Each structure stands twice: as structure tokens, then as C-alpha cells.
UniProtKB/TrEMBL annotation:
Keyword Methyltransferase (UniProt): no
Span of domain ABC transporter: 5-255
Keyword set, alphabetical order: ATP-binding, Nucleotide-binding, Transport
Gene3D superfamilies in the record: P-loop containing nucleotide triphosphate hydrolases (3.40.50.300)
The species this protein was found in: Psychrobacillus psychrotolerans
Protein name, as recorded: Oligopeptide transport system ATP-binding protein
Length: 326
């Protein structure tokens, strides 16, 4: 069967303009040729440091940001070739949950009004059924219809994220793109919201793309995980394979910072040196070479391609070239 979402060769280049005449002198390659798919009912985690292009990717999937190049196919429909009008309709089935629900909830509107808005925009139901749906979904996300007349500032951070999730669910979407949905919350609250998202996924048969900067956060919720660095996907594998045997030095470094529950399990520790280079002037070859303890001559010259190193486990790193040829 076809995956629910298929992304092929997706790119987002922002032009750099300099001087009085705004001469085009180069590009910031925010997302540079990434491809992946998401199966129905699955959760794909996308992880990387800020500025790696993960949010830009999420926004391009919904065409909140137009891709420079590439193809996005959702549920058999090529989103990158439809009109803006058709895209607006398609957004009924793809919704986003944001990092900061406070910033995305209108402070002057009641929760009822906020949750009703997507139903009005997509012309779903009548005033009475809309109201019922709002109240039902408040219950579903662990709040109560009693909260409907309150304003966003009257809720805690965790409750606001529940409201953000309820809003995303109002149109009965198939796919939810959650961009760091728990990053702004206390650790104790994070677990509650993650559990809620997992319960909702089962109940409502949702498919998730879960964006995070921390591999620890996505571990339990993701079936597969993609790691991004400077606009490229550098590793993509099942959660199990990624955490048991990370291949890319960058993934290993990210995992070095994640505590392991089993004290007997010793992970190879890689401490990252230096900062992420500027995406407007990325290093040649493997863009990770300025920080990689395993750098070889070829790494400075050739861009490593994402290739299958083990069944279902893809990596973009020259360390695995030998292995790939045999
Ligand atoms: Fe390190 Fe080279 Fe692999 Fe890049 S390609 S991660 S520089 S070993
Ligand atoms: Mg972001």
C-alpha cells in the first residue's frame, strides 16, 4: 500500500540579497533535498538542533511555506501541484500543533470560539453541531465543556497545549504535524501531553509527524525517526534501530546527551565541538565535517548520500561507504 505522505527531493532555499540593489548573492539552503515517507497510523519523529530545517520542512508539507523544489504527495494527491484554493481544502486533513500554544491562541477569544473557528473555515456542520463537537473534544483532550467560556490566559501551559491539540483535531484530520509540542512544557507535564497524543492516535487513527530537538522526547512516541543537520536528513531508521545502534556521528552525539534507563548499557560518548555552522555558508562535502571526530579527506569534498546501511536503516556518512559497496 502507498504511504499516507510521500516527500521527494524537498528543498527550501531563501535568497540572500546584499548591497543597495539587493543583488542575489547566494542562498540559505534551509532544507536541501530531503525525501521520506510516512505510513498511515505511524509516527515519524524528526529531530535536530534549531536551524536544521525541521520546522521549515513541517511548514512546507502544508504549504504554509512554498517549497523551492520537490514533491509532496498526501493520500494520493500531489499537494505541490494543486491550486491555493484546493490546498486550503486539503488542510482540513493535515493540521499542525505548535510549540507555543499561547502564541497561536487568540487571547481575546474564548476557547469555544477558538475551537469553532476551524469548523467555520472548513464549513463543517451547523452552529449547534459545532458547539457539541467543541464540547466533546474538550473532554477528549482531558478538559471539560465547563472550560469553553474561558480565555487562553486562564489555563496552564499544559492545558493550553491540550487546547492546541483539540483545535488541530476539530476537522478530523488524518495527519498531525506537531512542531515541538512539548518543548515549552515542564518535564512532568511533557509526559502527560505525550501520553494524551498517543491515546488520541490510537482512538482516532491519526498519523503523526513529531518534530523535536531532543531524541529523548521522540523515542517512545515514534515508530521511525529522522535526524536532520543543516537542512539535510543524515539518518533515518526505526526508533529501535536508531537508539540501539545509531550510525551517524551526529546522531551518536545527540544520543550521548540522552540519559539511558539501563545503567548497565554503556553508550559510545561523542561530545560535539563547536557550534552549528551558518546555513548561509555551510561547510563543503559533509556539512557535519567541522564538528565530526571521524572526519576523513573525502568528507570535505563529497556530499554523502542517504543510503540503506542495514535493512530499513539509512545513513548519510562516508564511514559506511565500504559497507555499502559489499
Ligand atoms: Fe563525519 Fe565524514 Fe561521516 Fe560526515 S561523512 S559524519 S564528516 S565521517
Ligand atoms: Mg523550530
Amino acid at each position: 500500500t502507498e504511504p499516507l505522505l510521500k516527500v521527494e527531493g524537498l528543498k527550501k532555499y531563501f535568497p540572500i540579497r546584499t548591497g543597495m540593489l539587493g543583488k542575489h548573492t547566494g542562498n540559505v539552503k534551509a532544507v536541501d533535498d530531503i525525501s521520506f515517507f510516512v505510513n498511515e497510523g505511524e509516527t515519524l519523529g524528526i529531530v535536530g538542533e534549531s536551524g536544521c530545517g525541521k520546522s521549515t520542512t513541517g511548514r512546507m508539507l502544508m504549504r504554509l511555506l512554498e517549497p523551492t523544489e520537490g514533491k509532496v504527495t498526501f493520500n494520493g494527491k500531489e499537494l505541490t501541484s494543486i491550486s491555493n484554493d484546493e490546498m486550503r481544502k486539503a488542510r482540513r486533513e493535515i493540521q499542525m500543533v505548535f510549540q507555543d500554544p499561547y502564541a497561536s491562541l487568540n487571547p481575546r477569544h474564548t476557547i469555544e470560539k477558538i475551537l469553532m473557528e476551524p469548523l467555520i473555515v472548513h464549513n463543517i456542520g451547523d452552529p449547534k453541531s459545532r458547539k457539541k463537537k467543541v464540547h466533546d473534544f474538550l473532554e477528549i483532550v482531558g478538559l471539560s465543556s465547563y472550560h469553553a467560556k474561558r480565555y487562553p490566559h486562564q489555563f496552564s501551559g499544559g492545558q493550553r497545549q491540550r487546547i492546541g491539540i483539540a483545535r488541530a483535531l476539530m476537522t478530523n484530520p488524518k495527519l498531525i504535524i506537531a512542531d515541538e509540542p512539548v518543548s515549552a512544557l515542564d518535564v512532568s507535564i511533557q509526559a502527560q501531553v505525550l501520553n494524551l497524543m498517543q491515546d488520541l492516535q490510537k482512538e482516532l487513527k491519526l498519523t503523526y509527524i513529531f518534530i523535536a530537538h531532543d531524541l529523548g522526547v521522540v523515542r517512545h512516541i515514534s515508530d521511525r525517526v529522522g535526524v536532520m543537520y543543516l537542512g539535510r536528513m543524515v539518518e533515518l531508521a526505526t526508533s529501535e534501530s536508531m537508539y540501539a545502534e545509531p550510525l551517524h556521528p551526529y546522531t551518536k552525539a545527540l544520543l550521548s546527551a540522552v540519559p539511558v534507563p539501563d545503567p548497565e548499557f554503556k553508550r559510545e560518548q561523542i561530545i560535539l565541538e563547536g557550534d552549528i555552522p551558518s546555513p548561509s555558508n555551510p561547510p563543503s562535502g559533509c556539512t557535519f565535517h567541522t564538528r565530526c571526530p571521524f572526519k576523513m579527506d573525502i568528507c570535505v569534498k563529497d556530499v554523502p548520500q542517504l543510503q540503506e546501511a542495514k535493512t530499513g536503516h539509512f545513513v548519510a556518512c562516508h564511514l559506511y561507504n565500504e559497507q555499502l559497496q559489499h
